[in-house]
Amino acid sequence: xxxxxxxxxxxxxxxxxxxxxxxxxxxxxxxxxxxxxxxxxxxxxxxxxxxxxxxxxxxxxxxxxxxxxxxxxxxxxxxxxxxxxxxxxxxxxxxxxxxxxxxxxxxxxxxxxxxxxxxxxxxxxxxxxxxxxxxxxxxxxxxxxxxxxxxxxxxxxxxxxxxxxxxxxxxxxxxxxxxxxxxxxxxxxxxxxxxxxxxxxxxxxxxxxxxxxxxxxxxxxx
Length: 222
Known about the structure:
The structure is a single chain. The chain is of the alpha+beta class. Helix content is 33%, strand content 12%. The protein contains 7 helices and 6 strands. The longest helix is centred in the middle third of the chain and has 20 residues, at 83-102. It is extended. The protein starts with 15 loop residues before the first strand and ends in a 12-residue tail after the last helix.
């Protein structure tokens, strides 16, 4: 009795189709090394990517507008050869070269602010410099032990450096201050908050800016 041989075809991922019918690139996960094209876009975090796209739309509508300089936070990749320090050095040097070549003023890494963090670099960059940095990081080849020629990026993510705003409507309920308002009519007048810590850095920029380590009489440090 003849039996049919079951044929197993190697399934390859299909390209996704957008609403407009255009083909979006998609890598084959069975190819070695697996380097999905779609992951390139995730280096620029979605909130920042949306900001850059909105700006691009505005510039197309009004070419007379000047490109914005965006405050960003560059999250370093711990798996980069040389570790976090290697990634930090590469990003600082590459950004400095981009700023110099493109002759852009008031842009670059804020080394003073970045000195307070080992994981993050704080910068002010135009969209074209952000994209150029990501492209150079993507194109560089760092050899692995198996000589694939593909290595990890120096930049893990680039985030927008949003201004910090107080959310008093949230914090009131979190610390049960709303209960104190209702029960005791206590609204914090003449109340002094103190932080007890053995490692306060007196010359930190925050304390220099707000001068809030200098207490007025009758308060004093104990």
